[in-house]
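Thread: Newbie trying to understand structure tokens

Hi all, I'm a second-year student working on a class project, and my supervisor (Dr. K.) asked me to get a predicted structure for one chain before our next meeting. I've only ever worked with sequences, so writing a 3D structure as a token string is new to me. If someone could post the tokens and maybe explain what I'm looking at, I'd be very grateful. Here's the chain:
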Amino acid sequence: MSIVRLENVSLAYGLKPLLKDVTFAIEPGEKICLLGRNGEGKSSLMSLLTQVVEPDSGALVFDKSTKLGFLPQSLPAADERSVFDVVAEGLDDLGSLLSEYHHLSHQLDDAADESVLGRMQTLQERIEQRDGWTFQNKIAHMLKRFGLDEEAQMKSLSGGWRRRVLLAKSLINEPDILLLDEPTNHLDINTIKWLEQRLNEFQGAVLFVSHDRAFIKALASSIVELDRGVLSPFQGGYEDYLSQKQKLLEEEERQNKLFDKRLSEEEVWIRQGIKARRTRNEGRVRALKALREERRQRIDKQGTSTLTIGEAEKSGKKVIEATGVNHQYVDGRPLISDFSIRIMRGDRVGLIGANGAGKTTLLRILLGKLEPQSGEVTLGSKLEVAYFDQLRDGLDLDKAVFDNVADGHEYVTIGGKPRHVISYLNDFLFTAERARTPVSALSGGETNRLLLAKLFAKPSNLIVMDEPTNDLDVDTLELLEDKLAAYGGTLLLTSHDRDFLDQVVSSTLVFEGNGRVTEYVGGYYDWVRQTGGILADESTFAAEQAGADLHSVPADSAPQAAKAQTPTAQNDASSKAVRKKLSYKLKLELESLPAKIEALEAEITELQTKIAEPDFFNGSHEEVSAVTERLAVVESELAQLMDRWVELEEEAEG
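---
Reply by user tm_fold:
Sure, no problem. This is what the structure looks like when written as tokens:
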């Protein structure tokens, strides 16, 4: 039986139809990716499902017992709330009772005020009436599972850890369906992979919006696409969707050509001379009017961006050379240690690392915008740099779109030729009306397209892009890949989009922890094949520093929960694995690992099955804690064995 059904649902904002008589159902256990161009109405559909807005017509039908969890696109506020409080908010008013009791219980001492004890007694009775202690145990298990410190304040957590808190909140009421709106935005690769694992373990239904193709491939069991008000289902994963979609577009184009041909023939007939009009068929005239109305009602597929990159005169052969660069946190821990590189004209270099690893700082050092604490950076000759800033500092939010691109002028020079700024912005899907809109009124996707328009309007021979893919739809991403591949200059970029990196870069600089920045040939998956893909976790860095000077980072700014998850010694050793022939002892160890891994995986399955039983959390606190703690221990042991297996396999292959 369906969890949620949309029956002939329509929704429009102004004159634009977002949904037209949509009928759609979500079944238990499905993991569905919702695709669509920016502005098609994906977030509006999410708002319908969360009952924030009502449809203009049609019905939204929920099973009476359905519980819903929602992970919004925006991060929770970095305020003084504790992790426990935020997760408990997922239980509504019961969560408020548990939070208050939790805080009062931590204030108890021998001199506890009678009023405090009295309030705790009242809370205890109200919680017991609602079987609330079961959820107290569930919160404790969820926080342990997600590696979260219940007392940590939200303001102490990076974006990736706040996203974990928000996911825990959305799951705490054991929802039947989980709605996720752009869950990977601003997350680093480690956290995205962690999120993939947790969502694949989730036994309920999932409907998610994402433009991260690697994430979609890893999670989606089916695809639905919102296109011009119509919601179309596609069976199978992302690759199946691409094949089916291409066939549908070809058939739509063929049908439209036949329709337009017929309409053209009828228009010729109605305009024939007097003799033809004397004998014309009134029924045929009515049919022509119907054809005209049908053509008027037909909503053509939204145009595709036609990005054009302005190229300057070629730079010198050597673009950037760095020698012995060192940079540290304020407490003396290394951020970049003894880093050297020579970037030549035409190189395409990607930077991979956790949030806060120092990618933006390294870019600033390489561009001469920040002096390293030691070492030397030399810039080549004739450099014309175009910089894409993930913080969007290059935009004036109060000015209109066209003023941000042309600085008040009517024309921009593209490819050595003048173009009217409105015509140029049309290439980036901005209508004349939208081009006159203040930047502050744009959506995330529109803002990123504006940044690209401004970036590419400037002739350059070195493009630097810091997280360019956030909020861009798949079509624009693929076009951007094509244009960058054809770009004749040099490219430096940071991105957490694994597919985008693979399509664009020729080498990668990987932040491996403890200041090590190592260059590898190829993109993300080439690096994974060469090393096993072990990336230092964001918890090894003091804080997220999106372009800030890291001299200002306080030594204790890492969240407590993150500090507890510093990578193991095996992880660190694995990243430095020496490729050599295995000794007899190591061969025996390698041969024994698969059986050990299989045993641990079997135990994890058994423990997860026990936890999933309906009455599991009704047991005593000691029994529940024993099982959940054992699960955490076994999962940690499994991770270490997997790392060791990868390390020995690499040595054996070397």
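A couple of things are worth pointing out once you decode it. The two ends are 53 Å apart (CA to CA). Residues 238-270 form the longest helix (33 residues). Feel free to ask follow-ups in this thread.
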